[in-house]
Amino acid sequence: MLRAGLMRHGPVSAHPSLAKGNLEVRFWGVRGSIPTPGEHTRRWGGNTSCLEIRHENLPPLVFDCGTGSRELGVRLLGEKHRELDLVFTHFHMDHVFGFPFFAPIYTPGYQVRVTIPAYSEEEAREKIARYLNGVYHPTRLRDLPSKVTFAAIRPGDSFPCGGFTVKGLLLNHPGGSVGYRVEVEGQSIAYMTDSAPFARPGEGVASGEAPNKREADVIEFLKDCDVVVYDTMYELDEYLDRMTWGHSYPDYALALCRAAKAKHLVLFHHAPDARDDQMDERNAKWVAVSDANLRVSCAREGEAVKAR
Q1: pLDDT digits (tens, 9 = 90+) for 204-249
Q2: Domain limits of the chain?
Q3: Under CATH, which number does the domain 20-306 receive?
Q4: Which of 92, 106, 120, 131 pairs with 67 at a CA distance of 20 to 30 A?
């Protein structure tokens, strides 16, 4: 145990930290834009976006397939489950890098249900097939030995995922992105990446004003959520120089979560240039704003956060 609510990897074959009835999210990749392995990111992690959500004996629910998914896939092969759900937020490369190296898709008899923001099952399949087409990777989608199926969802849809209920919300990102809220047995985790703010600096909920329509929709989406994982790639001063890049900053996520009465905000999608010492400082700064109503922390690769 590292500190309350945060756990390191357990044995390959089990999730010993997952007490009966608990919902938790484990971080296999926390970095944005490009993987940054090396000594300078060893403690906080350099892999790109990949989350695993678990609840008791339900099959794994995986969000995004950045480079962090490679180690996750290897570990999943050591478990009893031979099925999982994989849900994508969008198809920028840092969220897809790991899919051709995700071990379950090469495992005969493994059922991988892939859900993608798209208008049809055919379009969903085509989005993945672009990466496994014999050109960008030697494997072709049609040659995979596992049972891979595809489903399309639109923002606003609610859909079942292996015992979980998942709902999508359109975010604010070039090319589009969808945030998700996962619920089971009265517990909830939201995954909100990649997204710029829904109001300009000096306007909206972060400035103490009434939320605009888009902000009100997000606040309702996050209402009473146990854990909110939110894209906060920049600090405010950095964001002001990158307002069109499609990422947010902690002050904004904090304002939304307080308005929504969420319980735990986890800062996510760390900048590739953020070294471990800088992440230490950032984590200390934002943990310090936690109060009795809202806890704040930074996502660290390999750790898990419980909903309750």
Answers
A1: 999 999 999 999 999 999 999 999 999 999 999 998 899 999 899 9
A2: 20-306
A3: 3.60.15.10
A4: 120
